[in-house]
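Input (structure):
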């Protein structure tokens, strides 16, 4: 179970308001014979706009006690029958399977199939599922909890799962060779605020029937919450990198001054920069190891993640960002040595804005965690100006589920960040070990390969507080890269912002490394 699941357990989730239901009245219910309702790319935005103009209504997430009280293992036994997968018999390049309601996922989610410009509801029946030891429900037309898409990804003979939409507005994706790791969300609201976070919900989906030989699948989603309604269109193209092109149109019921656009949620427990108090055989445990950013001015930034002792918020102000993402750069088994979790196979997620997003900030939130089962990292774009009620606000972007995304290939990248006691003699003395830290940053890239001590490469390092001592930079013949090393003396500061990069003739030859050290 992930942190997102535990959060969702306490939610009350909304269903369609009467006005939105009226908009869907042309859509037939269970057992009705119909060609469906007319549907195009403007249908869901029209529903969302009308929904936002009506008062929000509390949800009805009623289920029989047997479904409400399912445990984790019991819920996993509720399996969709692959033989009933949508489009399976048609031999199309994509298939869809569906999640049953129950356990933490008690909200009804309505599914529709779009074909030839008409949308028809997908009607739930119990024989779509196997129930294990659980009692099959007697209710009709229960709806679903979510869905997942399958396509031949790793070989032509098997339909791999490439994405899943389940719980609030959470969804995930994988590229070739990946297993699930971090998640994305449709929208984040009031994350880490004192008043508590609001979780918008995808309440209805429309799955477009793919053409024979289609390279992508198209999914539409209707989002709702007390503060906002929204319409989403996902064009999902699987591959080595699976790319989702997302069109998001928001219709706030009230001004949104803490909206998180294109939010990503991940887990970071420890790594080489963050092993204080760790007693674990593995070198690292994380779904993502760093926040990467390409600023509107073209600066490439790498911010290693941290498992702090107290909640930490960081904001990186920008205008019209080139992109941001939570990345997993370590890709060998030895980096984690975990034969079950295989963190080296977890995808990175890179958000590439389409069009101008204006002024705002990439927001990073790091939450303390004592284990690897709870998501504790959140990153998103926060607009500088509140999203005004009564208007449409549009954000389009591409979401890359990838191994490594290339931003500016001419720059060397940070390969590793290592932090430890500044002096071996201090390791036995906790206070002294905390007082001074040795920071090691390794860079790699073609621009550094074969460059010796006489190459004119110099370190550019500064700290917001305390003092940087014994700064050095030198080549690493074993890797073909370069290393920056220095000691940080915080001098009573409880938090220090650090900056480092490699220069030649005053010009950056590496991306910019940023880090927040906390006592």
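Output (sequence):
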């Amino acid at each position: 179970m992930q942190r997102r699941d535990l959060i969702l357990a306490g939610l009350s989730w909304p269903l369609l308001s009467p006005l939105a239901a009226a908009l869907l009245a042309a859509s037939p219910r269970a057992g009705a014979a119909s060609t469906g309702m007319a549907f195009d790319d403007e249908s869901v935005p029209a529903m969302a706009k009308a929904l936002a103009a009506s008062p929000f209504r509390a949800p009805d997430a009623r289920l029989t006690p047997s479904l409400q009280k399912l445990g984790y293992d019991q819920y996993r036994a509720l399996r969709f029958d692959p033989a009933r997968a949508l489009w399976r018999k048609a031999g199309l390049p994509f298939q869809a399977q569906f999640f049953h309601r129950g356990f933490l996922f008690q909200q009804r989610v309505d599914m529709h199939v779009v074909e030839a410009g008409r949308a028809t509801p997908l009607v739930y029946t119990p024989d779509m599922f196997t129930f294990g030891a659980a009692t099959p429900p007697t209710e009709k037309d229960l709806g679903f909890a979510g869905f997942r898409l399958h396509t031949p990804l790793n070989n032509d003979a098997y339909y791999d799962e490439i994405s899943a939409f389940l719980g609030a507005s959470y969804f995930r994706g994988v590229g070739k060779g990946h297993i699930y790791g971090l998640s994305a969300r449709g929208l984040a609201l009031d994350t880490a605020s004192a008043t508590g976070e609001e979780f918008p919900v995808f309440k209805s989906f429309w799955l477009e029937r793919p053409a024979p030989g289609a390279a992508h699948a198209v999914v539409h989603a209707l989002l709702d919450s007390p503060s906002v309604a929204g319409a989403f269109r996902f064009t999902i193209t699987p591959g080595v990198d699976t790319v989702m092109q997302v069109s998001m149109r928001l219709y706030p019921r009230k001004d949104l001054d803490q909206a998180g656009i294109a939010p990503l949620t991940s887990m970071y427990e420890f790594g080489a920069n963050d092993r204080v108090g760790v007693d674990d055989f593995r070198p690292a445990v994380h779904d993502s190891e760093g926040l990467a950013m390409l600023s509107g001015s073209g600066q490439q930034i790498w911010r290693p993640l941290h498992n702090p002792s107290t909640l930490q918020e960081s904001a990186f102000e920008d205008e019209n960002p080139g992109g941001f993402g939570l990345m997993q750069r370590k890709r060998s088994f030895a980096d984690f040595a975990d034969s079950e979790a295989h963190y080296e196979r977890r995808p990175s997620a890179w958000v590439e804005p389409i069009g101008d997003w204006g002024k705002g900030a990439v927001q990073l939130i790091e939450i303390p965690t004592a284990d690897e089962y709870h998501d504790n990292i959140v990153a998103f774009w926060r607009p500088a100006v509140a999203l005004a009620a009564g208007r449409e606000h549009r954000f389009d972007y591409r979401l890359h589920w990838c191994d490594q995304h290339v931003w500016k290939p001419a720059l060397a990248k940070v390969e590793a960040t290592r932090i430890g006691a500044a002096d071996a003699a201090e390791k036995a003395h906790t206070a002294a070990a905390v007082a001074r830290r040795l920071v090691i940053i390794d860079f790699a890239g073609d621009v550094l390969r074969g460059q010796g001590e006489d190459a004119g490469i110099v370190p550019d390092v500064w700290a917001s507080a305390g003092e940087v001592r014994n700064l050095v930079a030198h080549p690493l013949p074993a890797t073909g890269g370069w290393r920056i090393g220095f000691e940080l003396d915080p001098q009573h500061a409880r938090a220090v912002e650090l900056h480092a990069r490699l220069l030649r003739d005053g010009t950056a030859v590496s991306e910019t490394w940023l880090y927040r050290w906390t006592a």
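Notes: The CA atoms of residues 98 and 259 lie 30 Å apart. Residues 1-34, 429-433 have pLDDT under 50 and may be disordered.
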